Amino acid sequence: MMKHAILLLSVLCAPATAQAPIRGYTAGQAAKLREWEGKLNSLPEPDRIRAYMRRMSAEPHHAGSPGSKAVAEYAAGLMKEWGLDARIESFEALLPYPTQRSLEMIAPVKFTAKLREPALGADPDSGDANQLPTYNAYSASGDVTGEVVYVNYGIPADYEWLKKQGIDVKGKIVLARYGGSWRGVKPKVAAENGAIACLIYSDPRDDGYFQGDVYPKGAFRPEDGVQRGSVMDMAVYSGDPLSPGWASEPGSKRLKREESKTLMKIPVIPISYGDARPLLEHLNGPVAPEAWRGALPLTYHAGPGPAKARLKVDFDWTTKPVHNVIARIPGSEFPGEWVIYGNHHDAWVNGASDPVSGASALLETARALGELWKQGWRPKRTIILALWDAEEFGLVGSTEWVEKHRQELVDKAVFYLNSDSNGRGWMGAQGSHSLEVFMNELLRDLKDPASGKSLLEAAQSRPGPRAAGKDFRLGPLGAGSDYVAFIHHAGIASVNAGFGGQDAGGVYHSIYDSLAWYTRFADQDFAYGKALSQFAGTMLLRLADAPVLPFEFASVARAVRGYVEDLSKLSGGGELDFRAVSEQLARLEKASAEYEMALAGAVARSGAAAKPKLAELNRTLYRSERALLLEGGLPGREWFRHQLTAPGLYTGYGAKTLPGVREAAEAARWEEARQQTARVAAALSGFSAQVEQAASQARALAN
What we know:
Number of helices: 22
CATH superfamily of the largest domain: Zn peptidases
Structural class: alpha/beta
Low-confidence stretches: 1-17
CATH topology of the largest domain: Aminopeptidase
Helix content: 25-40%
Shape: globular
C-alpha cells in the first residue's frame, strides 16, 4: 500500500504544464531541463525522509553539544556517500548554558516554580538524557526580587496602557505572555521601562488548551510545557554577540561581554502556564483590558503585586564549537557562480519539527542531486547545500559563515534558498521581489500533494486574506531564520520557503517537539517533506542551469510603490517628500520594461558562442540586490544594510519595509525620516543603474 502511495505522490508532484515557458530558457532548453526535472522529482522518497528525521531527532542536539556535532557528522557522512563533496566547517561562539535557575513567589504566599517539563509515557523521547533546561539564551545573569506586574505581550503599546493607569514597572519583575512580538523584544522593552527582570510564559489562549487538546491527547502545549529560545537582540545584528561583522574563529578578535549590543541587560526566563498561574492569581490592581486576558481560569489583573517574586539565573558564559555542514556540486560552465540552499540542524531539544523536518527534506534533495550526477547531469553553476549550526541561539552558524566568506559571496553568490520547519499545508514564502515571476513559474509547475492542484492554485485557495489577482506575492524578509545574513548583510537575493498552516500545535522549542508528535500531528506520511525536497530541487536546477538568470524587476518597483503608499499615511500630512523615490521608481520601471523587451532576444542567442556576454549579463543580474545595500546601514544598526526591508527593532521576526524611513516616521523623528528617504532614493538609483546595465547587455546579446 505504501509503495502505491509513493508512486501516486510522484505523479502528483511531476511538472504539470509541459509547454509552459520557463523564464531564461528557450523552448528547446526548457524541454531538456524538464527531462532532468522529471527525473529529479521521481527520486525523493518519504520513507527516507522519515529515516533521516528518526536519526537526527533521536537525541537532544543543541548547539555546542556532542549531540549537535554527531548530527553534523551524520549529515556530512550521508552526503559523501551520495557522491557530494561535503565537509564540516567549524566556528566558535558565545553559547551560554544555564548553571542556576530558580523562581519563587515569596509573598503573599510561598510558591516555587517547577521550571521543568515532565516526561510523558506516550512520547519516549520526552525523557531523553542531556536535555537543555528551560531557559532564555543571552539573558543577563542576576538575583533579583521585586513585585510582579502583568504586561500582556510586553510590547511598547502595553506599557503605554500601564502608564495611563499610573503603573510604573521600574524596579519590578514583569510577567509577559508569548505572542504579539518576538520573545527578545519583551525583555528589551521591559529593561527600557526600568524593570529588573522579565518572565515570559505561554498562555493557553495562545498556546494551549484554548486552541485544542493538549499533548499527548492533542497537538497543543500542555500545562508544564515551556518555550525555550534566544533573547539576543537580533534586530541589531545576528551571529556571535562578541564578533559583529567578522567571523568568530579560534584566536579571532572578540568584544567584551559588556561591549556587546545584543546581550540582554536584565535576567529573563521562560515559564509554563502552570508556573505562571499562581503569580497571576496573586495580582491586584486594575483588571486587565479584555484584549490582555488569556484563558486561565482567573481574573487577569495588572498589579503591581501583592505577588512578589525572586528570580535567580546564571550561566557558564563560555565559547563553544559551531559545526556547519557544507556540500558542493561543482559548476561545469560557471563554477564561480553559486546557488545556495540551507536549513539549520541544531535544535533546542530533539527538534523533529524545528528544524529536522526541513533539514531532512534538504538531505533528500542532496541525495536526489547526487543521483542526477550519476546519470550524467552537470549543473552549469555550482550548487552549495548547507546545514547550519546554532541557528537557535541567533542565526550563529550561517552568520559566521557569511561574515567569513562575505567578499567571495559578494562576487559569486547568485541566490540563497532557506527553509526551516516544514509541515502539512500550503507553500508560504518571503523573499526578494525580483524573484516573484520565477517563483510563480515554479509553483505553477509543481503539484500540491493533497489537492492535486498546482502549488500556485493551492496557495491561491488558502483561506484568509490574499493578494489580489492570480500571482503569488513574496512577502518581505524580516528575521527569524538563516537567510538574514545573506539578504540583509551581504545583499544576496533570497527566498525563505516551506509548507505549513494545517499542522497547528504548541510544542515549539519544548521537549515534546519529537518524532512521536510530528508523525501524529504534522506531516504524518512525509508527503510535504517530499514536496519540499522536490520544490527545492527544481528551484536549484532552474537557477543552476538558466542561460539567463530569471530575475525580473517590475515586481520590485510595484512592491516599493506599495511601501511608499503605506508610509505616506504616516507622514503627518506632508512631513515626508517621496518625489526623489518616485523618480527612481519611474526610472526603474522604464529600465525594467527595456530589459524585458531585450530579454527574449538575449535568451534566443544564449548558445556557447555567447558565453562571455552571458556571463557579464548574469553577473549584473545577480549582483543587482547588492545595490540595495548602503554603507553605514540603518540608524543604530549598521550591520543591517538593506534599504528596502529589515526586521523591526520592536517586531523582531516581523519585517519593516523601507525600515530606516518607517521606524523614524513611526516615532515622529521627521528629520531622520527625511534623511532616510534620501538614502532609499540613493539605493534605488544604484539598483536602477544595474537594471539599465542589464538591459544594455541584453540588447547587445540580442543583436
